[in-house]
Design goal:
Oligomer: single chain
Number of strands: 18
Shape: globular
Radius of gyration: 30 Å
Largest sheet: 7 strands, antiparallel
Number of helices: 17
Mean pLDDT: 76
Length: 558
């Protein structure tokens, strides 16, 4: 056993005896040795010749060493690559937050956002590192970004030019931004703004892009995200948790707001909205978006129980990511009668499949599986995909209205225990609706100095947090294109259960690109944002993770 070896230290809290003796011998030799001058490193010698300022090497006394040999010893934890780093390279890299670095990964754990409430200055300069193997969609260069229907929890922009123009908006600028949002005012900016801090038009448009609408609204309670948010809500005051009368009032108001949103969507005055429950998220899109000519609704993630309940209510839906035997994608029947007939036929097929055993006279020697085992085997694949991106459900056309009634009357839509008990789902919308409360995304800019080979360089960053919907992401990037002279980079942090909303749903009819924007002209979106969200999604089960603009050209990774 390794534990019986003398001097063995499993946790490396103390060095073994051999290393201790070698260290003692090196110290004794180093004290008697004559100090010698070490040659100047080539990069440092070149810098001195050019007259560049350099930091002095740490003295040997500062490191607690006595001799010249001890001072020349290399730090075993130092970076092996001594080449100077590029100026634009950040000092460190970090992975995207949360246990789900990629929505394509399979994981049975609950969806949860691991998102820091407070970020220090040095961490702001770190951008998420996304390897090429994490996505099936390669990076691309274009003048426009692809449509991303996921909800972002955080945006981190960095640029060689400052973001101070986003700070300390005047009262008139803030009021003008609110008015522009409520009136859906179209703002057109020049390609480049020389002094963004003096541009009132830019600052008002930035205020306009941060506004969203929410229901219900409780200032002391975080209402997004709802999936995996029990820990953040623990200890918060919730007077409705044990009051059935108050719960009934909250659900009644929520039903009115939900119906109002759907009516706005149906009449194309609302482009899309989200319904965020503690178990799943629903994205409702108006006709004309994502290449569809009818209203669509995507639900993710789902379970076999919710899918069976939708079948029993007569809701026709499909599972776009589930294929049977490599042929057509599975489509669920909306009537319980059709489901029962299908089950009876399949049972008869199973009975006939064992008739050949009776003809051979060996039916008694072979154990015949019971119908319950056969049914469990048939439904095994449905249970395995629960809580995963493959469980996403697509509802189209008039079935979305049936889905509306189903969600309003569904008792399991709200939690019965825990911190979210009795709390209605969160409604998120880019425009106002009945019972909604206007909210603002949080934005702050930070200016720091980063070390480079030639000295120190100013690095500027802008952080935006909150439920960032697709229109806000596009609006902010359009503003930064003008304010930062077409040069910035961004790390995008996705609420992972919504990444699968970027799949391309089946399209039965190709839409006319010229007539679609005219029909949706009053939905409250900027014409360029409307044109982007009308395109067919191409990101699949992934979402935008990193965006970089250089010379007004986007380079993005998913």
């Amino acid at each position: 056993m390794a534990l019986s070896v003398p001097g063995y230290s499993p946790d490396f809290k103390k060095p073994p005896e051999t290393l201790r003796l070698r260290r003692k011998r090196a110290r004794s030799l180093g004290a008697a040795a004559v100090p010698r001058e070490l040659p100047e490193p080539a990069p440092r010698h070149a810098a001195l010749a050019a007259g560049l300022p350099l930091r002095p090497f740490p003295a040997a006394a500062d490191r607690g060493c006595g001799g010249g040999l001890a001072a020349a010893r290399r730090n075993p934890f130092a970076r092996l690559d001594t080449r100077p780093r590029a100026a634009a390279e950040p000092r460190a890299e970090q992975a995207a937050p949360g246990p789900f670095l990629d929505s394509n990964q399979k994981n049975d754990l609950l969806w949860e956002e691991k998102f820091p409430e407070r970020t220090d200055v040095t961490e702001l300069l770190q951008t998420p590192h996304i390897s090429s193997s994490e996505s099936d969609i390669p990076s691309s260069e274009s003048t426009e970004l692809p449509a991303d229907w996921s909800i972002k929890t955080r945006l981190l922009f960095t640029s060689p030019q400052p973001f101070t123009w986003t700070d300390h908006l005047k009262a008139q600028e803030e009021a003008q931004g609110v008015v522009q949002h409520c009136r859906a005012t179209e703002v057109t900016l020049p390609q480049s703004i020389q002094d963004p801090k003096l541009s009132t038009k830019l600052r008002c448009a930035f205020q306009q892009s941060l506004i969203y609408w929410l229901h219900p609204a409780f200032s002391w309670l975080p209402l997004f995200p709802r999936i995996g948010a029990d820990r953040k809500m623990t200890g918060r005051i919730s007077p409705w948790s044990n009051d059935e009368t108050l719960q009934h009032i909250l659900m009644s108001d929520w039903s009115v707001s939900f119906t109002s949103l759907y009516n706005l969507l149906k009449t194309k005055f609302c482009p899309y909205f989200y319904v965020c429950t503690y178990q799943f998220t629903v994205l409702f899109r108006a006709a004309g978006f994502a290449g569809n000519d009818v209203i669509t609704a995507l639900i993710s993630p789902t379970t076999r129980g919710i899918r069976e309940a939708m079948k029993n209510e007569g809701i026709e839906f499909s599972l776009p990511l589930l294929k049977e035997n490599g042929h057509e994608k599975k489509k669920a029947s909306g009537t319980s009668l059709g489901h029962e007939e299908e089950q009876v036929i399949s049972d008869e097929d199973e009975e006939e499949s064992f008739s050949w055993l009776e003809e051979m006279g060996v039916q008694d020697k072979i154990k015949k599986p019971d119908m319950l085992s056969i049914k469990m085997h048939r439904e095994k694949h449905e249970v395995q995909m629960d809580h995963r991106p493959e469980s996403v459900v697509l509802v189209k056309g008039m079935n979305t209205f049936t889905l509306l009634n189903f969600l309003i009357n569904c008792r399991s839509l709200t939690a019965t225990s825990g911190p979210q008990a009795g709390l209605p789902p969160t409604l998120l919308s880019p425009i106002a609706f009945r019972g909604a409360t206007m909210q603002m995304l949080k934005a702050r800019s930070v200016n720091v100095k980063t070390q480079t080979y030639s000295g120190y360089k100013d690095q500027f960053s802008l952080e935006i947090t909150g439920p960032i919907m697709p229109h806000s992401l596009h609006s902010v990037t359009m503003l930064l294109k003008s304010s930062q002279s077409g040069s910035f980079s961004a790390g995008l942090y996705t609420h992972e259960p919504t990444a699968v909303f970027n799949i391309c749903p089946p399209i039965e009819k190709v839409l006319d690109k010229e007539t679609t924007p005219e029909e949706l002209a009053n939905c409250g979106l900027h014409p360029k944002t409307l044109d982007q969200l009308s395109q067919v999604p191409i990101l699949g089960k992934s979402s935008l993770r990193h965006v970089e603009m250089s010379d007004y050209i986007y380079n993005w990774r998913s």
